[in-house]
Every structure is written in structure tokens, then in C-alpha cells.
Amino acid sequence: MCIRPAGAHRGYGRGVLKVENLTKVFGQVRAVDDLTFDVRPGVVTGFLGPNGAGKSTTMRMMLGLDRPTAGTATIDGRPYRELDHPLRQVGALLDAAWIHPNRSARSHLRWMAASNGIPARRVAEVIDLVGLSSVAAKRAGGFSLGMKQRLGLAGALLGDPHTLLFDEPVNGLDPEGIVWIRGFMRHLAAEGRTVLVSSHLLTEMSLTADHLVVIGQGRLIADSSVTDFTSRATSSVRVRSPQLPDLHRVLAEAGLAVVPGATPDGRPTLSITDVSTEQVGDIAGRAGIVLHELTSTSASLEEVFMSMTAGAVQYQGGGPPAPGPVHPGQWGQGGRQ
């Protein structure tokens, strides 16, 4: 499917989304706490944080759906509510279920288009763009979650906007749909649009985002490129050898920190932190030691994220349940008894 939107030829340079000292208090809860960051055109910016971090509240304030307690959120220097033609300037997908269940996909988008003076022909374009042409006349209430996500994406693209906000856009999509939307977002950013994506799928974000804004308990934790973010973790080198004790000795004599380990299938290894594969290979070569594996490893986005947000998690599991047989009657209608 072609993912090129109708306005792809424009060349976008606008759409700086700026959050300055943004704060939102609900009663005794400080959901967003003095948050400041920019989202710039031309890159996909991932908006990450644990559950309850304040991501959705921040995005709602960007769109004027929640009023800030303090601070501002602006697009090209203006609050969303002051934009002349909102759908032509900002597209958003925050809740895929926000559709009238008895309207068809086509009717839903025609209603949105009419509200902002968008030509009706654009409806057919975005329906085709997101792959819903075969179900355009069907009631949206009967759509799967993945189909609703595609319809929500069509609504976000309806006005061919320069700024796009997506909250968990891959929820409900099958693997093909996830790969498709990943490429779609990167294509939109490559056109010079501003793309902000909130997601809890960290592996997917590592494949989609160029830049990350990470928050926890409403406060900024990181604002950096994906590469800089993951480089904060300590890298290591894993090595296997039939002369492992000798290798351990010469590495330790070289002043390196060596930790014994094993591969998943039980073969013994050594891990050395803060060192390159070239250094380890040179030391082994000078000692005449044969190597069967010499691998550089670095922490994944998920591992770095978990480490950096460990103190900002609102909801944590209590660990695995104690082992033991499950007997008939142990589980009731309301859960475990």
C-alpha cells in the first residue's frame, strides 16, 4: 500500500510543539510536574514513561482537552484552542474508540471533514491510505480494535496536518499492521512533519523513534536521541574459549573486570565491562589463546528504560505467586479466592 499522503509534496518545516513548565494537579495528585521539552519536525519522537507517568494527561493538555494548572503547551507558538483550522494543523489519535458506533467509517470522516471545511474527496484518500476501503460503508461499532486504530489514524491525517500526536497507535494491530504503521510514521517524519508517539512497546519504539522524551511521575527523566539514551548503559564484551581459565587470568592481569557466565545452552563464558572487542582480542592474541566467540553487547532500550524509571513506577507487581497446584474451585468468578 502506498503511504504517501496527499500533501506529501509540500515539504513541512513548521510544527514545533513546545511544552514549558507544564503542570497538572488533580486534587492531591500532581499528574504532570513542571514539564519542559520540545518536539521538532523531521523526526519521530517517542514519548515514554511507566503507567501513571502523565503521558496521556500531557497529550490532552497539548490538545486543549485538559486545562493546565500551570505552564503552557503550544504548536508554532500558539495554544491548540487558538489555531484557526485545528485539523489542518494538528492531527491526533488519543482514543481509537472515540467513534459513533452506528456511523460508517466514511460517514464518521465526512462529519469530521465538514467541521473543518475539508473537501469531501479527502475522505476517500485517507480511507484508502489506511487500508479501510473495503469496509468504508460498514458501521464502525463492529470494527475490531485494529480497524478502529486505522480509522483513528485516517481522522488524524484528514486535514493533511504538519503536526501529529499518537497515543498507543499500535494497540490491536496485527504484526503486518505494526510494521505498516512503523513505516508510515517514519515516512511522515521524513516529509518534515512533527510526529509524537506515546507507546509502552519499547522494542517497537527502538525501531520507530529517532528521539525520546521519557517521563516518570509527571517529571522529565530524559530528552535525547535513542542512541544517546541507550549509550547510558554499561556495555560489555562476551567471550568464549577452550582455554577459558588462561583467558580469565590474562584479562585480570590486564586490570579488566571479568565476570564468569554461561550461554543459554550452558557453555561457559566470560563477560568484561567497559572494554572493546579489539582490546580483548589483542590480549588473547598476545597470549596465544584461541577464541570461539567475541561479542560486544549493549543494553536494549527496554533495559535502560527500566533502569532509569525504576524509582518512578506507580504500579508494581508483587512478584510471582508461590508455586503449588491449582485445585478445582480455587478460582472463582471474581478472580482468585
From TrEMBL:
Q: Which GO terms describe its molecular function?
A: ATP binding; ATP hydrolysis activity
Q: What is this protein called?
A: Putative ABC transporter ATP-binding protein YxlF
Name the UniProt key words of this record, in alphabetical order.
Answer: ATP-binding, Hydrolase, Nucleotide-binding, Transport
The ABC transporter domain, residue ranges = 17-242
Q: Which InterPro entries match?
A: AAA+_ATPase, ABC_transporter-like_ATP-bd, ABC_transporter-like_CS, P-loop_NTPase
* Record EC number: 3.6.3.-
Chain segments carrying region Disordered: 316-337
- Family the UniProt entry places it in: Belongs to the ABC transporter superfamily.
Show the SUPFAM superfamilies listed in the entry.
Answer: P-loop containing nucleoside triphosphate hydrolases
Q: Does the keyword Lipid metabolism apply?
A: no
* PROSITE patterns in the record: ABC_TRANSPORTER_1 (PS00211), ABC_TRANSPORTER_2 (PS50893)
Return any one Pfam family short name.
ABC_tran
Q: What is the lineage of its organism?
A: Bacteria, Bacillati, Actinomycetota, Actinomycetes, Mycobacteriales
Q: Which organism is it from?
A: Gordonia insulae
Q: Does the keyword Nucleotide-binding apply?
A: yes
Q: Which CDD domains match?
A: ABC_BcrA_bacitracin_resist
| Class in the EC hierarchy, top level | hydrolase
